[in-house]
């Protein structure tokens, strides 16, 4: 047994999809705490950061296992989990690992419930449900919707709640831009794998759209993330300093250009576009978090 293989198995680089929304929410709560006289618990925020990463890690493992069992991921596939198809980890050990991570995440969630309040039970319950059954939804073209709900609004709402013991629905709204970009991580995967998914009779949005529309979809999601940020500023939910997210545009443009150049014969060219889209999640999310933090200092 190689510890390295087990670490690689949950794709650590992808965990920005769950942890960046937590970071955005923590800094947003810090930004609004004076205006709304909030008592904030930063320790709970840190635990939410850890918990979100653990839940996503378990989801990655469980999803890869189900894909392997349904012969979606094969040795010749361009992406997907490689630990099973290349025989680095035995299937039984792999799925036990995934559910152990899930149990750790649930335990942490229960602990946070005692530290915050009962509303975390239904917020976390939604997260656990989609962690376990996400792959089934993915196979019927609902994966993008599930990812959008979880890796943005739901994480934002949960993080704000454990930090303040209040349901702050603005925290849901301010995570919509990052959720749109996170969906593009999945879209880049689905576009890359559309030929293999077709053989496995899986219907993803990219397959339904076709390559050219999937490329447009990728671009539209990114543009929408920036436009929605501007709208949030206009609605006074975000400080004008949050326009510094525009500094991440070079990364966004690079990724759009990579996607636009791909053809059905060169899908391997976007093998690593999911990782590059994760880089955009980091750039956009960190810049937004910095803006929230600085804006909070200006208000104080």
How would you portray this structure in words?
The chain is an all-alpha fold. It has one domain (3-299). Helices cover 73% and strands 0% of the residues. The chain has helices spanning 3-9, 16-32, 42-69, 82-85, 91-115, 119-138, 143-164, 170-173, 176-192, 194-199, 205-209, 211-234, 249-261, 273-299. α13 (249-261) packs antiparallel against α14 (273-299).
DSSP strand (E) fraction? under 5%
* H/E topology pattern: HHHHHHHHHHHHHH
Q: Distance between termini?
A: 53 Å
Oligomer: single chain
Uncertain runs: none
Categorize the overall geometry: globular
Strand count, sense and closure of the main sheet? none
Number of helices: 14
Residue share in helix:
over 70%
β-strand number = 0
Q: Tell me the count of domains.
A: 1
Q: What structural class results from the helix and strand content? A: mainly alpha
Give the rounded overall mean pLDDT.
93
What's the gyration radius in Å? 19 Å
Secondary-structure blueprint:
Blueprint: H1 3-9, H2 16-32, H3 42-69, H4 82-85, H5 91-115, H6 119-138, H7 143-164, H8 170-173, H9 176-192, H10 194-199, H11 205-209, H12 211-234, H13 249-261, H14 273-299
Helix pairs in contact: 2-3, 2-7, 2-14, 3-5, 3-6, 3-7, 5-6, 6-7, 7-9, 9-12, 9-14, 12-13, 13-14
Short account of what is shown:
The chain is an all-alpha fold and 300 residues long.
